[in-house]
């Protein structure tokens, strides 16, 4: 099996765990307070990991090139807003369906990969991505809208916006990491991640300081959960960054749709939310799309 596939699956599992923790934080913090936890507490850990790897492989990642910084900045800002949109989605319906709307990301990542990096996906791979998207739509289609078309409301707007921005950030991160040369993927990924998280932490600290006075104190008072969010989020991000350094971001994000399977399981076992027969059918279609993409890859 290609290395990026198990790395992606592990990253998707950790990301789902982080989302579960952030949902609990949403009951105690504002949208942006809960969003900031994944960046502020992850940054020092990412810097430590990157420092250790750079010491082990000196000279393998030169960040002083013209491509790295624009890609890093654009990806970092896009991910902040995408995360805020995703956490806001937890205010609508249930945990599984709120997250599902963001999974249009895989198709949008394929388009951004072509436009930003000039990396196209094969027709078979794109077909598998569309099959996976069909599965996600089965999962997320509201029952009360049966026969009346898909409701054009805030859930749809926040979900599609989050998916688009997550897709853009993934492509930008791959571009930034690839600009660091031909060193080990884990070194390039860790250096990119560390710099991105430091930048995002500074942005979030400034935002909370100016716009939500007192929220930063609440973030640190909830350190038992916010610290765990940072740790799990850093490990998940390191997995994503490494996989996207190894492979086209569209393929990585498409296989990463396995997260929705973990999300459904979390929704049922931890949040005691009912899973319908239609959602189970959607899981089967989604799984078929992921397996098809793996076979193509």
Overview of this structure, please?
- The chain is globular, with a radius of gyration of 18 Å.
- Helix 1 (4-26) packs across helix 2, helix 2 runs antiparallel to helix 9 (185-211) and helix 2 (31-40) packs across helix 10.
- It is built from 14 helices and no strands.
- It has helices at 4-26, 31-40, 43-56, 68-89, 95-100, 105-117, 123-140, 154-178, 185-211, 215-221, 223-246, 249-255, 259-269, 277-296.
- It has one domain.
- With 297 residues, the chain is mostly helical.
Radius of gyration, in angstroms, nearest whole number: 18 Å
- Tell me, rounded to a whole number, the average pLDDT: 85
Query: What is the beta-strand fraction?
Result: under 5%
Q: Summarize the helix and strand pattern as letters.
A: HHHHHHHHHHHHHH
Compact overview of the structure:
Helices cover 76% and strands 0% of the residues. It is mostly helical.
Outline the secondary-structure elements:
Layout: H1 4-26, H2 31-40, H3 43-56, H4 68-89, H5 95-100, H6 105-117, H7 123-140, H8 154-178, H9 185-211, H10 215-221, H11 223-246, H12 249-255, H13 259-269, H14 277-296
Q: Which tags fit this structure?
A:
about 300 residues, mainly alpha, about 75% helix, about 0% strand, globular
């Amino acid at each position: 099996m290609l290395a990026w596939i198990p790395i992606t699956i592990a990253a998707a599992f950790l990301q789902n765990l982080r989302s579960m923790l952030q949902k609990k934080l949403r009951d105690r913090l504002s949208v942006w307070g809960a969003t900031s936890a994944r960046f502020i507490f992850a940054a020092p850990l990412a810097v430590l990991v990157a420092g250790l790897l750079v010491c082990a492989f000196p000279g393998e990642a030169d960040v002083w090139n013209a491509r790295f910084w624009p890609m890093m900045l654009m990806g970092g800002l896009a991910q902040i807003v995408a995360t805020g949109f995703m956490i806001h989605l937890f205010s609508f319906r249930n945990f599984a369906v709120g997250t599902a709307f963001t999974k249009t990301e895989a198709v949008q990542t394929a388009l951004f990969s072509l436009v930003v990096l000039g990396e196209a996906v094969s027709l078979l791979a794109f077909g598998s991505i569309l099959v996976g998207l069909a599965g996600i739509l089965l999962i997320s289609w509201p029952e009360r809208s049966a026969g009346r078309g898909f409701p054009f409301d805030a859930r749809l707007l926040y979900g599609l916006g989050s998916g688009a921005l997550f897709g853009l950030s993934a492509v930008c991160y791959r571009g930034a990491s690839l600009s660091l040369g031909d060193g080990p993927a884990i070194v390039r990924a860790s250096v990119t991640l560390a710099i991105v998280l430091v930048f995002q932490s500074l942005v979030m600290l400034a935002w909370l300081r100016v716009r939500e006075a007192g929220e930063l104190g609440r973030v640190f008072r909830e350190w038992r959960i916010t610290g765990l969010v940072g740790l799990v989020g850093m490990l998940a991000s390191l997995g994503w960054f490494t996989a996207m350094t190894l492979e086209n971001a569209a393929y990585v994000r498409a296989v990463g749709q396995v997260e929705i399977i973990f999300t459904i399981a979390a929704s049922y076992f931890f949040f005691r939310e009912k899973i319908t027969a239609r959602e189970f059918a959607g899981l089967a279609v989604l799984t078929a799309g992921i397996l098809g993409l793996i076979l193509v890859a």
